[in-house]
Design goal:
Elements: E1 2-3, E2 19-20, E3 25-27, E4 31-33, E5 54-57, E6 61-63, E7 66-74, E8 80-88, H1 98-108, E9 110-111, E10 117-122, E11 125-133, E12 144-150, E13 162-168, H2 172-176, E14 198-199, E15 207-208, E16 212-216, E17 230-237, E18 246-255, H3 256-261, E19 265-269, E20 280-291, E21 296-307
Antiparallel strand pairs: 1-5, 2-21, 3-4, 5-7, 6-7, 7-8, 8-21, 9-10, 10-11, 11-12, 12-13, 13-18, 14-16, 15-16, 16-17, 17-18, 19-20, 20-21
Length: 311
């Protein structure tokens, strides 16, 4: 099913990175386009549809009392504009507790690739996890979403019930094979660290099951005695096994309380590295959008730019 839509754009440019404005990119089902400056357009319409552009939808999964699905949007001329997770607001009610997940285990939540996900301990706390393919995503390196409902949060400071939305750049089978928590067995070059981000000081727990190493911004409120509501994590791993890591996922983390109260559109920049390991088209912003006509919320990575890389 295809649905057209409008999503707000922004012509601000994050600093501290090398980018090319006009590298053509091919997208399966989306055509070919060079990337240029974005311009402001109208936000989501009253019906909850997105205009203009072409949206390709993933299959629904069941989360709480509602449904969630992945989507990819491109311009009519073929440029990538958004990858995202679309959730009905009913998702935020009826979510399983950590005790529910532990008790039900694989009798109810047995398949991360299936419609009800898998229950497993991640970050030392029980989580409901989904692997959701991203449709028509070859214009960018993004391959699938790893979505986790964390009813008891997780250490060190993200203890509020929240959703983790991992936008992965590796094949699902590669991420599925990552186990943890453990210490990384590779180096992460400084030029691949996004501006302002650092590696966790807890070395033996940097690499997390089904995810990879987590990189954090130490200036966010929750890292300084404030309240966790909406934050961004960058992730890294060594997919080639050559001893050198690269950025492999970007992860908005949003509390259930924040999502329940959210209205309008909130967009934040995504910090960029000096250079990426691989040339490609990467997001420079993430956004949380209320879709009032559909009683839904869309969480997206967007404002894509084509970047130079070391390979």
């Amino acid at each position: 099913m295809d649905t057209t839509h409008t999503l707000e754009e922004n012509d601000g440019r994050p600093s501290r990175r090398r980018f090319l404005r006009a590298i053509p990119v091919a997208a399966a089902g989306l055509g070919t386009s060079g990337l240029g400056s974005a311009s402001d357009t109208s936000d989501l319409d009253r019906k909850g549809e997105f205009l203009p552009g072409i949206t390709k939808w993933g299959d629904h999964v069941r989360l709480g009392n509602g449904r969630a699905r992945s989507f990819t949007t491109g311009t009519r001329s073929g440029g990538p504009t958004h990858h995202g997770l679309y959730i009905e607001r009913a998702v935020l009610d009826g979510l399983p507790s950590a005790g529910d997940l532990e008790a039900a285990g694989e009798s109810r939540y047995s398949d991360k690739y299936g419609p009800t996900g898998r229950a497993l301990p991640i970050h030392h706390r029980w989580s409901q996890e989904f692997f959701l393919p991203l449709p028509a995503s070859t214009a960018t390196p993004f391959t699938f979403l790893g979505v986790n409902w964390n009813p008891a949060g997780h250490p060190p400071v993200w203890s509020a019930p929240h959703l983790d939305i991992h936008f992965h750049m590796l094949p699902a089978a590669t991420v599925d094979a990552i186990t943890g928590p453990t210490a990384p067995s590779y180096e992460l070059p400084a030029e691949y660290l996004p501006g302002g981000f650092v590696r966790s000081p807890v070395v033996d727990e940097r690499v997390i099951t089904d995810m990879g190493e987590h990189l954090v911004d130490p200036t966010v409120p929750e890292m300084n005695g404030g309240t966790f509501t909406n934050t961004l994590i960058w992730g890294a791993s060594d997919p080639d096994g050559d001893g050198t890591a690269e950025l492999t996922f970007v992860e908005p983390m949003l509390t259930r309380e924040y999502l329940r109260a959210h209205s309008g559109t909130e967009s934040r920049p995504i910090a960029q590295p000096t250079t990426y390991a691989r040339a490609g088209t990467y997001p420079t912003r993430y956004s949380v959008r209320d879709v009032p006509g559909a009683d839904a919320i869309a969480i997206t990575i967007d404002s894509f730019e084509s970047f130079e890389g070391d390979a």
